[in-house]
Automatic annotation (TrEMBL):
Keywords: Hydrolase, Metal-binding, Zinc. Pfam families: Lactamase_B, WHD_BLACT. Belongs to the metallo-beta-lactamase superfamily. Glyoxalase II family. GO terms for molecular function: hydrolase activity; metal ion binding. Its cofactor is Zn(2+). InterPro entries: LACTB2-like_MBL-fold, LACTB2_WH, Metallo-B-lactamas, RibonucZ/Hydroxyglut_hydro, Sec-metab_biosynth-thioest, WH-like_DNA-bd_sf. Signal peptide: none annotated. This is Lactamase-like protein nscB. One of its GO terms (biological process) is secondary metabolite biosynthetic process. Residues 18-172 form the Metallo-beta-lactamase domain.
């Protein structure tokens, strides 16, 4: 994706290779959310903007540890040597972010929201003045997101939806108008997938009357035309659903065979 800069009210969005970073506020002190992949074009554009606006970045807030969000930190420090870098699980020389931490510059007040799921350390941010969310990779501008652990991810989506925000600034993709509606779509999609897996596990006339299923069996049943090269991510997503259902007592894991079955206790879908 080509480098582009989209000017928004008190928020400037930089997109480079699919990762959004955000410069926030007015005046000579700004906040930055994420630092991208560490591409030279990003730091050059940021330097140009800061010079033009006679501004510096006092705090950089990192949504999570993935390389496409943190690899620009060193370039940022060269541009703004006094910047403080905040991350929920901070690396050496960084500072921690906790739930409800407040970050303020002229024109912008951000409240931190701990929102694990995509990663264990994931943070989102609420922009008070605009009632907007910086959703990181939990909610994307296009498509659905991956997650490390489904249960916390769903809880985080509920938390973000409850903010009732009018706009969402994602880690990837275009700005989201009405993020609550987008999050409802995510939750509906995840519930449909969960229900489908449970129906398969409970079915006695599928897969030659087998009642024990491997994650790969389920993936092949749910995605019969999926290309082999993306089969592994599909299996991993199904494993996350199975782990959630096991924690809820609705699925049993037979560790000696690596297979799953519906629990004997009856639960309504």
């Amino acid at each position: 994706m080509a480098l582009q800069l989209v000017k928004l009210p008190d928020v400037e969005r930089f997109t480079l290779q699919g990762t959004n970073t955000y410069l926030i506020g007015r005046g000579n002190q700004r906040l930055l959310i994420d630092t991208g992949e560490g591409r030279p074009a990003w730091s050059q554009t940021l330097e140009s903007i800061l010079t033009e606006e006679k501004a510096t970045i006092t705090s950089a807030l990192i949504t999570h540890w993935h390389h496409d969000h943190v690899n620009g930190i060193q370039d940022l420090k060269k541009l703004c040597p006094e910047v403080r870098v905040y991350k929920h699980d901070p690396d050496e020389g960084q500072f921690p972010i906790e739930e409800k931490d407040i970050f303020h510059v002229e024109g912008a007040t951000l409240e931190a929201i701990y929102s694990p799921g995509h990663t264990q350390d994931h943070m989102s941010f609420w922009l008070k003045e605009e009632n907007s969310l910086f959703t990181g990779d939990n909610v994307l501008g296009q498509g659905t997101s991956a997650f490390e652990e489904l249960g916390p991810y769903l809880s985080s989506l509920e938390t973000l939806r409850a903010k009732g925000s009018v706009r969402g600034y994602p880690g990837h993709g275009p700005v989201i108008e009405n993020p609550g509606s987008k999050i409802t779509e995510y939750l509906k999609h995840r519930q449909e997938r969960e229900d489908e897996i449970l129906r398969l596990l409970r079915s006695r006339n599928s897969r030659e009357n087998a009642i024990l299923w491997s994650p790969k069996d389920l993936a092949q049943e749910i995605y019969p035309k999926i290309p082999e090269e993306v089969m592994l991510p599909a299996i991993n997503g199904i494993v996350q659903v199975l782990m959630k259902l096991e924690n809820e007592g609705r699925v049993s894991y037979h560790s000696e065979r690596g297979l799953y079955s519906a629990s004997k206790t009856k639960h309504a879908l």
